[in-house]
């Protein structure tokens, strides 16, 4: 995803303008292209945390690793409601914190986006 985002940004007019002004390739990449290419990645991090939390059940079950995914799976099999609720709360908290972190980092990278 990062590569495709960077390729798309490098085709923009402002990158062409920066090259025409004689800026070095490194300066163009670090100061102009990277901040604009990383914004979609940061937005996806919050969404990906939820996907990771869902996939952890499968990974821990397949490899036999002890963890929250295996705990959740065993609780579901035993219909252990308090443990299921606890795992759900931990997962929801991780997703909310991931989205919050992504929302707080975005204005640091793109000054056009302001926190209210």
Concise summary:
With 116 residues, the chain is mainly α. Helices cover 83% and strands 0% of the residues.
Question: Would you give an account of this structure?
Answer:
- With 116 residues, the chain is mainly alpha-helical.
- Helix 1 (2-10) packs antiparallel against helix 3 and helix 3 packs antiparallel against helix 5 (81-109).
- It contains 5 helices and no strands.
- The mean pLDDT is 85.
Key terms for this structure?
single chain; 116 residues; mainly alpha
Q: In terms of topology, how is this protein built?
A:
Blueprint lengths: L1 H9 L2 H8 L4 H39 L4 H11 L2 H29 L7
Helix pairs in contact: 1-3, 2-3, 3-4, 3-5, 4-5
Biggest beta sheet summary? none
Query: Globular, elongated, flat, extended or rod-shaped: what is the shape?
Result: elongated
Strand content: under 5%
On the 0 to 100 scale, the average pLDDT is 85
- Strand element count: 0
InterPro entries: MetI-like (IPR000515), MetI-like_sf (IPR035906)
Domain ABC transmembrane type-1: 1-106
Subcellular location: Cell membrane
Organism: Salipiger bermudensis (strain DSM 26914 / JCM 13377 / KCTC 12554 / HTCC2601)
């Amino acid at each position: 995803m990062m590569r495709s985002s960077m390729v798309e940004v490098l085709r923009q007019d402002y990158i062409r303008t920066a090259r025409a002004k004689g800026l070095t390739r490194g300066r163009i990449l670090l100061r102009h292209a990277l901040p604009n290419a990383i914004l979609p990645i940061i937005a996806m991090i919050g969404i990906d945390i939820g996907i990771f939390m869902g996939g952890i059940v499968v990974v821990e079950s397949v490899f036999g690793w002890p963890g929250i995914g295996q705990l959740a799976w065993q609780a579901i099999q035993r219909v252990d409601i308090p443990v299921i609720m606890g795992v759900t709360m931990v997962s929801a908290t991780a997703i909310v914190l991931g989205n919050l972190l992504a929302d707080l980092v975005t204005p640091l990278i793109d000054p056009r986006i302001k926190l209210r």
